[in-house]
Amino acid sequence: MTGIFTKALAEFASGELLPTPLAMSVGRLSALDWLACGRAGAAEPVSHILHSMAAAEGGAQQAHMFGGGAAPSRMVALVNGTTSHALDYDDTHFAHIGHPSVTVYSAAFAMGQQLDRTLSQVLQAALMGMELSVRVGLWLGRDHYQVGYHQTATAGAFGAGVAAGRLAGFDASQMAQVIGLTATRAAGLKAQFGTMGKPYNAGLAASTGVEVAQLVQAGFEANPDALEGDFGFGATHHGSADYKSALDGLGTVWMFETVSHKFHACCHGLHAALEAARELELAAPEVAELQVRTHPRWMLVCNQMAPYTGLGAKFSYRTVLAMLALGVDTAGLDSYSDETCARSDLQALRKRIHVQADDTLAETESVVTLLRRDGLRLEASHDLQSVVELSQREQSIRSKAASLIGEARAEVAWDMLHKNVPSSAFAEMFGS
Amino acid sequence: MTGIFTKALAEFASGELLPTPLAMSVGRLSALDWLACGRAGAAEPVSHILHSMAAAEGGAQQAHMFGGGAAPSRMVALVNGTTSHALDYDDTHFAHIGHPSVTVYSAAFAMGQQLDRTLSQVLQAALMGMELSVRVGLWLGRDHYQVGYHQTATAGAFGAGVAAGRLAGFDASQMAQVIGLTATRAAGLKAQFGTMGKPYNAGLAASTGVEVAQLVQAGFEANPDALEGDFGFGATHHGSADYKSALDGLGTVWMFETVSHKFHACCHGLHAALEAARELELAAPEVAELQVRTHPRWMLVCNQMAPYTGLGAKFSYRTVLAMLALGVDTAGLDSYSDETCARSDLQALRKRIHVQADDTLAETESVVTLLRRDGLRLEASHDLQSVVELSQREQSIRSKAASLIGEARAEVAWDMLHKNVPSSAFAEMFGS
Predict the structure, then answer these.
(1) Do residue B349 and residue B243 come from a single domain?
(2) CATH code, A317
(3) Which chain A residues touch B60 with a CB distance below 8 Å?
């Protein structure tokens, strides 16, 4: 017997309500974005460590890895989940709270190749999984995140399992098994933020999804009510268990449509301010003073006052806004460096930038007020949740992908995402 | 920077304080017991499912699996941890609260073979790991268990990682990395009790230990304070964090010495009553009435009144005591069957057995009062924590192992455990 929430999720995951055309379009954008982040992330030290473990184990070449080579799909999901989150440049869903693509696409592409599924089947299964991740994330709620769980990894594992199960053709009862078994396996702590453990958490979730789906396919019988039942994942992991809100519109409203992509290679908490400042056409020589207002929650996350390292810069309003005003490319991976922090013009400008908490703003919102040297006062605000035209999102992501993996490859991949080719054809682009 | 508890554990795990001779002797008994449970457990359906996953993945033959065959050591740990706990017949440490051997030996034997270590090195590393599992279990405390976490899997993963790390020759700073990385990976819920998910939890912990040690060896950098620091494993997982009690005597007092072995193939909550009843030389025709007193916590765990399945019998005071009185072997795996439950003499006798909660007793204690047909009243009590002579423990475990895997093999294994042979020699006994 399963509870109301698990039953609804299992029926959705195995059912006939398919993603809207808009959700599918956004899903394609996220797939391109994920490919670009994964290929670019393969150069990171954490990716090399996971790769070396895969090489030492060897085994059946069931799917392809970012950085090249093939391995069993459980391992591929671990490597690709870690690698695609290594730069922390992938998409975010603010209701989730987490990064849906790195966990779910990593699982779906691995399982899709193992089972010889087409690219369209992988995209559709991943969209079902990502929608489920968002719903489970909502159900777990803010307390779960605040106490220390990394929702990308916890809620994400359920989405990864369901995407893998969808590719295996599971019915509702098998999907309930996937959910129940994932409940005993999903893990990941925010205490790993700022270390290699953060991207590893995403890899864990992806790999959990593949493992669980494979076990259920082989006839594994777990407690299908281990997510919401007594002593279940919700009860043990500080879940809110508000299933009514979490299920609202499931199957008709596709929350994944509002996923947010990163166009600056820094903490997502800084992006609304950067977008607002962009509207003001910020230029350093004109800046007398700049004031940023943002949701209080970000003050402890990304308000480092005067960092001197590249990593610190990625968590500093004052630094990234000074970079923007000085014409440093905030989308460039190499822009966030110790050298940038050491620039005297940047340090001088940084002193004229002030950050203030404002609890009337949403978490996705910022207001930037510029006092120009000529006395003019300008203000702009931006909300990351505001609707952006699909064509504009497409242009931005294709351009981001081109800068990360080269225009030629980005365009071939984008083209492929519109055709019903074998998923292995797309995955061959993961390698060098 | 690590907290006091992690620092002490990391120093212990990498240090020079070795297990006492008694701890080593008990460790050898547990190794034989674990081998017997693992080989016998390989016939269970859950073991077949894990085995088929290992076969599909293939890869480097780093270590041996129960049931035969070799695979990468991460996979071997997953298979062997699950398989050796499949019968639920392995050892228990009541302070842990959990089953130390199935997680730690499964990790240590896998890693030991991969790194070409001797049997003595594996035994010693496993004892360090099991001691650490017990200490982490104490630190997590009763709340952690009561809320729904399966301590075998959660505390056990830390012990598995440390045992694997010890075999890799880690220093204190690497051990702190093992502990910190395990904190983001350890998982397992009691909601899986009664399903294949329970033994799988043990496999997960073993596999986590091997994976984490391999990553740290390759240079992985996690947050070494993720067990006890802010937003760490303790804070998120309802840990008591009473490090003073948990560290009491660490390195000089070997808590593992008091591990408890099962000599009846049923729930550990029934064993004290069975031992007490054995002292009364219970025989069905003489029983007018039998009263059992036990700690209240067991009333919800193993007091099924009149089960009709073999699985139900394993959780029923009245059934196992009736079996004992009727001369049915409570150590035999096949004794717990639907047929046994259906016996009319057993059902008649069961009605004369009464179970009562008694909160003056320890969890490991039971009192059995027999009213004989001749009017004589006899009483016996047993505490599983009471000291048993090593020679008596040895005799019981060798006899149990002989009944599970045959006397010849059990004696070869027991002999081998006293010699410094390669660990792969012992592991070759896992197969058919």
Answers:
(1) no
(2) 3.30.1330.120
(3) 56-59
Asked whether residue A59 falls in the same domain as residue A193, the answer is yes
What's the pTM? 0.94
- Phi, psi for residue B203 in degrees, rounded to 5: -60, -40
pLDDT score of B387: 82
DSSP structure class, residue B68: S
User: Which of A56, A204, A219 faces B49 most closely, judged by CB atoms?
Assistant: A219
Of B44, B78, B195, B230, which to mutate for an interface test with A (greatest number of A Cβ within 10 Å)?
B195
Same domain, A230 and A377: no
| Co-location of A222 and A136 in the same domain | yes
User: Within 10 Å of residue B338's Cβ, how many Cβ atoms?
Assistant: 13
| Per-residue model confidence (pLDDT) at position B401 | 96
Structure tokens at A157: 């594992």
Given pLDDT bands bounded at 50, 70 and 90, which one contains residue B97? Answer: confident
Residues of B in contact with A57 (CB under 8 A): 59-60, 62, 72, 74-75
Minimum-distance CB partner of B190 among A189, A194, A231: A231
The domain that contains A123 carries what CATH number? 1.10.4100.10
Q: How far apart are CA B131 and CA B137, in angstroms?
A: 10
Its ipTM equals 0.94
Asked if B311 and B341 touch (Cβ cutoff 8 Å), the reply is: no
- Closest residue on chain A to B47 (Cα): A220
- E strands, B34-135, are 63-64, 70-71
Give yes or no for residue B281 having a pLDDT over 80: yes
DSSP type of residue A20: P
How far is CA A105 from each of CA A33, A202, A427, B389, rounded to the nearest angstrom? 11, 11, 11, 57
**Looking up tokens 């490090």, which residue turns up?**
B243
Whether residues A207 and A339 fall in one domain: no
Please report the residues numbered 136 through 175 in chain B whose beta carbons come closer than 8 angstroms to any beta carbon of chain A: 147-150, 153
B189 → closest Cβ in A50, A236, A238? A236
Counting the structural domains of chain B, the total is: 2
Q: How far apart are CA B128 and CA B18, in angstroms?
A: 8
Phi, psi dihedrals of residue B5, rounded to the nearest 5°: -70, -50
Is B53 in contact with A215 (Cβ distance < 8 A)?
yes
Return the structure tokens found at B159.
Answer: 């012990």
A81 and A65 both lie in a single domain: yes
Identify the pLDDT of residue B311: 85
On whether any CB of chain B is under 8 Å from the CB of A236, the answer is: yes
The rounded distance, in Å, linking the Cα atoms of A355 and B361 is 62
**A and B: number of Cβ contacts within 8 A:** 175
Among the three residues B347, B363, B383, which one is the final residue of a domain in this structure? B383
Same domain, B15 and B158: yes
Residues B86 and B154 in one domain: yes
- Whether residue A301 lies within 8 A of chain B, CB to CB, comes out as no
Comparing C-alpha atoms, which of B1, B19, B277, B263 is closest to residue B132? B19
pLDDT of residue A386: 87
Residues of B in contact with A237 (CB under 8 A): 236
How many whole angstroms separate alpha carbon B57 and alpha carbon A62? 8
The yes-or-no verdict on residue B425 having pLDDT over 90 is yes
> Exposed e or buried b for every residue in B197-214, given b needs 16+ CB within 10 A?
bbbbbbbbbbbbbbbbbb
Its domain, for residue A33, covers 4-260+391-430
Could you say which DSSP state residue B19 is in? P
Q: What are the pLDDT digits (tens) for B52-86?
A: 999 999 999 999 999 999 999 999 999 999 999 99
Residues of A in contact with B181 (CB under 8 A): 197, 200
How far, rounded to the nearest angstrom, does the alpha carbon of residue A147 sit from its chain's CA centroid? 20
